Amino acid sequence: MAPIMRMKEIQALTPEAREQRLIDLRVELARIRTMVNAGGAVENPTRIRHLRKTIAKILTVQNEQTLGIRKAPSAPEKKEEKPAKKAKLKKEAPKEKTPE
Length: 100
Hints:
Helix 2 (about 15-35) runs antiparallel to helix 3. This protein has a domain at about 15-65: Helix Hairpins (Orthogonal Bundle), CATH 1.10.287. It has about 100 residues and is mainly alpha-helical. About 50% of the residues lie in helices and about 0% in strands.
């Protein structure tokens, strides 16, 4: 199963949207854990692991931004264009010296 959210998606969110997503994921995790503790069958037991990992990713990004390690999302930066590579010239065989 694919992850709930990828790091690129989490980093692209605004802090408010990230906080709201964190709340939603925690509510869903609590609901699933309640079902498990009540003895009910869960459709997808691995969903708990994916939820926990996604919550950890969101918290990591938030803490990194708080500490200044990771900058808040901004306009995507343009990569510098590298000049075209020149074709390598084949080495010529050394010229023989002619007697003068």
